[in-house]
Amino acid sequence: MAIAEVTVIPIGTGSTSLSSYVAELQRVLEQQKGIKYTLTSMSTIIEGPLDDIFAAIRAIHEAPFHSDAKRVSTSIKIDDRRDKEGSSEQKLRSVQDKLGL
C-alpha cells in the first residue's frame, strides 16, 4: 500500500479563500474506491493501492476546473514501500514509540 500527500491549488478563482474548493475535493474523495484519506490543514493524505491513489489524484486535480478555476497546480509526494505493509498510523506510531510516547 502506498501513501501520497497531495495539495491541489486552484488558480484564477477571483478569491484568496480556497475552503470551498477543499470541501469539494473531500466530496470527490468520498466517491473514490480503494482508498483511505485524511484532510490536514495543508494537504490531504491518501492511502491505498497505487493505481487507486492515482485515480483519486486525477479526480481531485480535475475538480476545480468544474468549479470555474482557470488553472490548477497539484503537488504530489508518494511513499511506496513494498518490503512490508504500512500506513500513516503505523508510521506515526513507530516515531512515537521511539520518543517514548
UniProtKB/TrEMBL annotation:
Domain Thiamine-binding protein: 4-96
InterPro entries documented for this protein: MTH1187/YkoF-like (IPR029756), Thiamine_BP (IPR002767), UPF0045_domain (IPR051614)
Domain of life where this protein originates: Bacteria
Residue span of region Disordered: 70-101
Family recorded in the similarity comment: Belongs to the UPF0045 family.
Name the UniProt record assigns to this protein: Thiamine-binding protein domain-containing protein
Organism of this sequence: Paenibacillus vini
